[in-house]
Every structure is written in structure tokens, then in C-alpha cells.
Design a protein that fits this description.
six-stranded parallel beta sheet, alpha/beta, 216 residues
């Protein structure tokens, strides 16, 4: 990819290995308040990569749970705080990929449905914040992924053309947003439930080492 000028990263599940963190926060809430035994496979298949509002709709569809967003927001945030998000590790090979992009003077942006204070705090913790030139976070869009608005906004911020940028995602939700914005989309996941939904992306890989090899 000789004309590559920038890479837009998703955050959760792409740069940081956070899905188990979120799963462990949600699991006791569903068990205690709704008698639902959530397993990780179900989390990946139906909840990972989606907004809180979308996940509340999914709870109603799967289990008939009718709950207000305010309750789930408060309950999940309390559990996130108790677990300490700074214990979430980077995805394998994430640092090596970022180092490679820095060496090649390829700029980086973050396009995520997470909130800016959270991602900035975590990137600062990893010592990576200074490498990111643009951020499009949950606060910046009305319609989150899979709507392509977030990637369209990132493109405007970067000043690059779609042919000069690739997006790296881990879910069909995020990949659809990138693809529909006209970007080359690299999806990275080992989860079969996600891989089965990602037949439309440009590249479907297993880890960030494969991304590094591809971009080289």
C-alpha cells in the first residue's frame, strides 16, 4: 500500500483487548437483576461493538428484558470503575504496528464509539496518545457505527482522500461504517461469530501482526 497516508483505528477490540472487560462488567448485572446467564460467545455475537442503546434493544429481543438506559448506564459504569480500565491490555502486536506506522510517517486517527476521556486516558497510560492526530468519539456523532458518519468526519479532519486511508476494525458494525464511508477496511478478529459477518470487507485477518505484514 504505497500510497497509504493514514490509518484510522477502532479502539475496543482492535487496539485494546477490552471485550472480556466489558463482558465481566455486564455479566453480574444481567444475572442479579434479570436472571440472565450471559456467556462470552453471546456477548461477542450480539453485544460487542454496539452502543448501550443498541444493547438494551438486544436484551429485550433476546430475553424480554425491559430496562431503562439510565439504569444500565449507571450500573455498567460502576462496574467499569470497580474493575479499573487501566488493567485492560493492548491487543497483541498493537505496539509493533503503531511503531511501524510512526517510522513510516503514516498518520493515525481513532474512530470509536467509546468516549474521548476514556480513550485519551487509556492511550496516555500506554504511552501512545501522542501518536494520534485525530479523534472521532461517541460525543462527536449523532448516529454511531454502523452509520458511516464517524468515518466521514475523520476523513474531513485528516484532509486525506479515501484512497489514502485504511480503517482497522474488529466487528461487522464498525467495518460496515468504514466500508460505507468508502474506505479500505481491514477487519481483525479470531471470533467465528464476527468472521462469519465480515464477508464484505477488503481484508479479513486474524491479528495485528498480519495487518503489519499487509501494510509493509
Amino acid at each position: 500500500m504505497k500510497d497509504l497516508k493514514a490509518v484510522f483505528f477502532d479502539f475496543d477490540g482492535t487496539l485494546v483487548d477490552s471485550e472480556h472487560f466489558y463482558f465481566e462488567a455486564w455479566k453480574p448485572i444481567l444475572k442479579q437483576h434479570f436472571a440472565v446467564n450471559l456467556d462470552f460467545e453471546t456477548w461477542i455475537q450480539y453485544f460487542a461493538g454496539h452502543t448501550l442503546a443498541r444493547n438494551i434493544l438486544t436484551m429485550k429481543e433476546l430475553w424480554g428484558v425491559d430496562v431503562k438506559e439510565e439504569f444500565m448506564w449507571k450500573s455498567t459504569r460502576e462496574n467499569y470503575a470497580n474493575q479499573d480500565m487501566l488493567t485492560i491490555p493492548l491487543m497483541p502486536h498493537a505496539r509493533e504496528l503503531i511503531d511501524f506506522l510512526v517510522e513510516r510517517d503514516i498518520q493515525m486517527g481513532l474512530v470509536t464509539s467509546n468516549f474521548r476521556p476514556t480513550v485519551e486516558r487509556m492511550l496516555e497510560h500506554y504511552g501512545l496518545l501522542q501518536h494520534f492526530s485525530w479523534f472521532v468519539t461517541r460525543e462527536d456523532v449523532v448516529n454511531p457505527k454502523p452509520n458511516p458518519t464517524c468515518y466521514q468526519k475523520a476523513l474531513l479532519l485528516s484532509g486525506f482522500d479515501t484512497s489514502e486511508v485504511v480503517a482497522i476494525e474488529d466487528t461487522a458494525t464498525g467495518s460496515r461504517a468504514a466500508y460505507d464511508a468508502g474506505l479500505t477496511c481491514i477487519a481483525v478478529t479470531k471470533q467465528k461469530a464476527e468472521r462469519d459477518r465480515l464477508d464484505f470487507v477488503n481484508h479479513l485477518l486474524f491479528d495485528l501482526k498480519e495487518v503489519n505484514d499487509l501494510l509493509r
